[in-house]
Amino acid sequence: GLIVHGIGSRNEREVAVARILERVGLLPDVALSYPHELSGGQQQRLSVALALVNDPEVVLLDEPTTGLDPQARRRLWDVIREINGAGKTIVLTTHYMEEADVLCGRVAIMDTGRIINIDTPKKLIDGLGAEVKISFNIPKEISVTDIKDSTGATDVTRPGGQYVLYTKDV
């Protein structure tokens, strides 16, 4: 079983462990399972539970949502927000830009082990100056020139009847 330091009686430790397992969505189904019996997603959630077991001030999470289905991934995002909301600092590594945007106050982009940029997610995205492509249908036909002029888009096309708008300012 998990050993929790700094918590009194065995019963208090068991309650603390159960609470952590419940937070990461592992109770009641897998509480008595061995780690090697768990699915990949369940093992990921167990790793997060182990990171939380001693109530650290700083929590290091290395790609905690890899291998999780979308529902489990969102549930784990809620756990991460809850931990952060309790005043804990979280260092999270991820390859998922949506995850970094949703969970992180600051993002460091690394290349070959070196930080090449660090800022808020919004400032990093805005700094790219990348063009965004938006495809849409509307019931009434409007000229692409009118859409371009009214939106400030860099370009508007209509291949196959669907409008495609290109802009640097979403």
Task: Tell me briefly what this model is.
The protein has 170 residues and is of the alpha+beta class. It has helices at 10-23, 40-52, 70-85, 97-103, 121-128, 144-151, and strands at residues 58-62, 89-93, 107-111, 114-119, 132-136, 155-157, 163-167. It starts with 9 loop residues before the first helix and ends with a strand.
Strand order within the widest beta sheet: 5-7-6
Estimated structural class:
alpha+beta
Helix content: 25-40%
Round the Cα radius of gyration to an integer and report it: 23 Å
Shape call: elongated
Strand percent estimate: 15-25%
Biggest sheet statistics: 3 strands, antiparallel
* Mean pLDDT level: 85
**Helix-strand topology string:** HHEHEHEEHEHEE
Question: Which regions are unreliable across 5 or more consecutive residues at pLDDT < 50?
Answer: 1-6
Give me the number of helical elements. 6
Q: Count all strands and give the number.
A: 7
Distance between the termini: 51 Å
Give the topology:
Layout (H helix, E strand, L loop, with lengths): L9 H14 L16 H13 L5 E5 L7 H16 L3 E5 L3 H7 L3 E5 L2 E6 L1 H8 L3 E5 L7 H8 L3 E3 L5 E5 L3
Parallel strand pairs: 1-2
Antiparallel strand pairs: 3-4, 5-7, 6-7
Describe the fold and architecture.
The protein is α+β, with helices and mostly antiparallel strands and 170 residues long. 39% of the residues lie in helices and 20% in strands. The chain has helices spanning 10-23, 40-52, 70-85, 97-103, 121-128, 144-151; strands at residues 58-62, 89-93, 107-111, 114-119, 132-136, 155-157, 163-167. The strands form three sheets. A three-stranded antiparallel sheet has the order 5-7-6, covered by helices on one side. It has a two-stranded parallel ribbon with strand order 1-2. Strands 3-4 form a two-stranded antiparallel sheet.
